[in-house]
Amino acid sequence: MQHVWVFLAGALLCNCVPHLASGLQGFSFPTPFARPRGVGNSPPLVNVVWGFANLAIGLLIAAHHASMPDIGVDAATGLAGGLAMGLYLSCHFGKVQRNRGPD
Questions:
Q1: Which of 47, 56, 88, 103 lies most in the core, judged by the most C-beta atoms within 10 Å?
Q2: Buried residues in 35-52 as b, exposed as e (16+ CB within 10 A)
Q3: Do 31 and 50 form a contact (C-beta atoms < 8 A)?
Q4: What is the rounded CA–CA span in Å between residue 88 and residue 18?
Q5: pLDDT single digits (tens) 47-87
Q6: pLDDT of residue 73
Q7: Where exactly are the structural domains of the chain?
C-alpha cells in the first residue's frame, strides 16, 4: 500500500508543474474547476492555488510514506507516478490545444 501512496505523491508533484508555471506567468490553463472540466481555462490565480495544493499534498504524502532505507524503490515508484501523470496530461492537453485552434 505504501507504493500506491508514493505513486500518488509523484503524480501530484508532476501535476503541480504546469499549473504553477502557467499561473506564475499570468497565463490561463485548464483546471478541474473550469467549464468544461479540465478543458476550459481557469484564471492564473486559480492555477497558482491549484498547483500549490498539488505541491503541498504531494510533499506531505511523500514525507509521510517514503521510507529512507527503501528510497530506491520509493523514488522509482514516485517517478512512475510522475511519468504516468505527465503522459496523461500531455495527451489530454495536447488534444485540448489541437481542438481549440488558433486564438
A1: 47
A2: eeeeeebbebebbbbbbe
A3: yes
A4: 13
A5: 999 998 999 899 888 888 766 565 677 777 877 887 788 77
A6: 74
A7: 2-100
Query: Which cell numbers hold the place of 5?
Result: 501512496
Count CB-CB contacts under 10 A for residue 63: 9
Strands 29-30 and 41-42: antiparallel
Long-range contact list for 16-19, CB < 8 A, 24+ apart?
A: 16/51, 16/52, 16/54, 16/55, 16/58, 17/51, 18/51, 18/89, 18/93, 19/47, 19/48, 19/50, 19/51, 19/54
How far is C-alpha 8 from the chain's CA centre?
A: 10
Distance in angstroms (rounded) separating the CA atoms of residues 35 and 31: 9
One-letter identity of residue 57:
I
